[in-house]
Amino acid sequence: MRLEDEEEEEEEEEEEEEEEEEEEEEEEEEEEEEEEEEEKKEEKEEEEEEEEEEEEEEEEEEEEEEEEEEEEEEEEEERKLYFIPWIFQNDVMK
Questions:
Q1: What confidence tier does 9 reach under pLDDT thresholds 50, 70, 90?
Q2: What is the residue range of 80's domain?
Q3: What is the rounded distance in angstroms from the CA atom of residue 57 to the CA atom of residue 53?
Q4: Residue 9 to residues 19, 20, 46, Cα–Cα distance (Å)
């Protein structure tokens, strides 16, 4: 009778240990999954930030180009304004 009790007790202990191990494994897996999800989330956020920065840079470049074009147009207009009277002056003096 004692032997049976001892065996039964040992079996129960083994089962408990196995259950604990399984629980630990599951917890570890869950933690790993959470970490992976967190990493993915962080990566996604970083990518979004990079995209935003790129967009901002592109916008700035476009604005700069537009400003340069406007300046060039203004300069061209000014040149025309000075050039036209000069032509007339030369024509009149001839």
A1: confident
A2: 1-94
A3: 6
A4: 15, 16, 55
